[in-house]
Amino acid sequence: MSGIGRQAIVIGASMGGLLAARALADFYDTVTVLERDHFPVTDEPRKGVPQGRHAHGLLARGREVIEDFFPGWTDEVVADGGVRGDIAGDVRWFGHGVALKTAPSDLLGVLASRPVLEGQVRRRLLKLPNVRAIAGCAVQGLVGSEDRSTILGVRVKVENGAEQMMPADLVVDASGRGSASPAWLEMLGYARPEEEKIEIGIGYTTRLYRRKPADLGGKVAIVVAGSGPNWRNGVILYHSEDRWIVSIGGYLGDHAPDDAQMFSAYAGSLPTREIYDIVAHAEPLGDFVSYRYPANLRRRYERLAQFPKNYLVFGDAVCSFNPVYGQGMTVAAEEAVLLQRALREGTSDLARRFFGLASVAVDTPWDIAVGNDLRHPQVVGARPAKVRFINWYIGKLHQAARYDAQLATAFLRVANLKAPPPSLLYPAIAARVIWGNLRPRGAKEAAQPSAQVS
Ligand SMILES: Cc1cc2nc3c(=O)[nH]c(=O)nc-3n(C[C@H](O)[C@H](O)[C@H](O)COP(=O)(O)OP(=O)(O)OC[C@H]3O[C@@H](n4cnc5c(N)ncnc54)[C@H](O)[C@@H]3O)c2cc1C
Question: Which CATH superfamily is domain 5-83+111-196+297-368 in?
Answer without folding.
Answer: FAD/NAD(P)-binding domain (3.50.50.60)
